[in-house]
Amino acid sequence: MAHNQIPRQAGIRPSPRAVLGRLSTGAGRGTRITHTEHLPPRPGTHAQWPSAIRPEVIDAIRAAGIERPWAHQARTAEHALRGESVVVATGTASGKSLAYLAPVLSTLLDGAEEPSGRGATALYLSPTKALAADQRRAVAGLTAPLGTGVRAAVYDGDTPVEEREWVRQYANYVLTNPDMLHRGILPGHPRWSSFLRALRYVVIDECHTYRGVFGSHVAQVLRRLRRVCARYGSSPVFLLASATASEPAVAAGRLTGVPVVEITEDGSPRGEVVFALWEPPLTELHGEQGAPVRRTATAESADLLTDLAVQGVRTVTFVRSRRGAELIALIAQERLAEVDRSLPGRIAAYRGGYLPEERRALERALHSGELLGLAATTALELGMDIAGLDAVVVAGYPGTRASLWQQAGRAGRTGEGALAILVARDDPLDTYLVHHPDALFRQPVESTVLDPDNPYVLAPHLCAAAAELPLTEPDLELFGPATTELMPQLEQRKLLRRRATAWHWTRRERAADLTDIRGAGGSPVQVVEAATGRLLGTVDAAAAHTTVHEGAVHLHQGRSYLVRQLDLDDSVALVEEASPPYSTTARDTTTISILETTTEIPWGDARLCFGSVEVTNQVVSFLRRKLITGEVLGESKLDLPPRTLRTRAVWWTVTEDQLEEARVHPQALGGALHAAEHASIGILPLFATCDRWDIGGVSIPLHPDTLLPTVFVYDGHPGGAGFAERAFHTAARWLAATREAIAACECEAGCPSCIQSPKCGNGNDPLDKKAAIRLLTTLLAGAPEHPPAAE
């Protein structure tokens, strides 16, 4: 592809419409845009800061160029100063940081004047280290005129040991993450006693990211924090910042365990946003079972990043996977080298798993403008101030509308116009969305799903709480209704022992090490270069079987490596540098059994159920695929141990009479169920805050527990994450959208855009598209008019 360089005049930004116009020129480019949404500019609404904000803070804000606050900032500050926990859920770049910083800084200055010494303190929690570091820079710039009244410091895994003692003793604004709170601060709370005793505010930034199992863990960490604070005589106010979300006060209340006021009316201005939906073209290649194959979102996004860089348009491309971020950066660098040898060095990848010094260097280069384009995972999605971007390319729907708008909002953060492009993957949900734009642009963002009462989440936190301070009867109410049932089990397992009026932790090891709050389930696997012993990075334990198995291709900093050995006992993957012309994809097999049916409702003769299941999964092989086209080159067997998961699932059954009515003959039954299962997993993220990698599915023509044809969709986390339950409560709309997505696809017999799955353990065989449509039509005919209400 030719990339014509268009010089960009210094200080002049091209309009988003003009940039999109250039991208859509060329052979076949215009037909790839399925929809363009124009969001007009919006004026801002000013207000006055509350009178209780100290004048020094207002002067410092003015010195930063902000004369008056937006209306939502002033309202948030008012609630905070009144001692009311509050969540501000407004658009990206709407100034949420200032909304909570103004009352926090004012209170810290008040405390600095107290004769008692340390005065008030505040704790800032961020889901990522990068965001905490970015916030530290912002606070430093804002508080420079305030002298020593505000002493802000980052306290995370990258903080040198010699600095940690200073932070504990002297900092009054500590920026950290839930992981460090869980593993470091709470278990060592006596050393933090003066800080916790004076704790006035807890800021929870980007709180919409605390969903599923991770969110459930963080909810219990916050309850442990509240309990320890109460022991020291403090009761902090929670200030939460979120991307636009549905019912933010409900989600924030479930996360913190306290009543929360919500601020959702956005008073900030917004520049014009041009949002294009982009579908890569079909190729002449054929994939599994002879299905047509679209050009990959990876290759298409790399082309767009290349063209935008040539135009001088500062761009971030968001990618779902670490491997995808590396690939897009690598392809763009190679293509830019053909145009201008100075450009490849201005493109880079950014993802989790990099060493701290690598991440910091990339963040500095992005801030300075040295980098023109970045291919990033969601590690960069959250509110980092990367002002100056002109465009965002989203390579594949990120799983939720909230996340999509969060990523798109990275561009145009200085109030300028912005271009956002969603590039569809060859996937049922992506295909559905680029042809149903109303599902993106006319629907509210999702509710945040989390379940703090999940026993797999709650149990280790009860142990951690008991290790911090012996648990008493009054404490049990704080941790939720499931606590009373769990305590005897923890005693029986000899994890807790009751003495007099309290439960005590009985083991020598640290109770906080019982669980990984990210839900990874074990120690991260270290990726080590075999020849040198150099640590390249880490991979989550849960992902190791599928990503660093023997023979897997592993990408790091633009270099590719082959995995020579995966040592599960020592959690090490040994790799050596190589340049294979393919990527690898793991294959697995899954069986499922029903442990308990919690709820069951009739759908005509069919049944819709929700309950507990046990899933056994084993990675058995991997495919080698050509890098750009995705064409399958071969398959290799693997010998890895099976993994067992107890979780929650939604499932539906159909009867023989319904199969006859749907004209689904016995030889087509397996393919019909399998196709419906794949497509329903692909569509579920429209109805629950998950993506298809959070959930799994199994379809069986005759399941031994139901004795009927059955389709299961289950949460991919121990104890469940709330996604299957959400599917149960929205089943009629969810399965109707599934049927429509299959029927609307232009392929003849099924393809990755409708019924094929990228993670199918059976090689996408059997699948029957037409039988699946007839089966779902019959199933939906019996759906009740009044579906079960969510609790």
TrEMBL record:
Residue intervals of the Helicase ATP-binding domain: 77-263
MF terms (GO), sorted A to Z: helicase activity
Keywords noted in UniProt: ATP-binding, Helicase, Hydrolase, Nucleotide-binding
UniProt cross-references to InterPro entries, sorted A to Z: DEAD/DEAH_box_helicase_dom, Helicase_ATP-bd, Helicase_C-like, Helicase_put_actinobac, HRQ1_WHD, MZB, P-loop_NTPase
Keyword ATP-binding among UniProt keywords: yes
PROSITE patterns the record matches: HELICASE_ATP_BIND_1, HELICASE_CTER
Domain of life where this protein originates: Bacteria
Start and end residues of each Helicase C-terminal domain: 304-456
Region (Disordered): 1-49
Record has Hydrolase as a keyword: yes
Protein name: Helicase
Species: Streptomyces hygroscopicus
Species lineage: Bacteria, Bacillati, Actinomycetota, Actinomycetes, Kitasatosporales
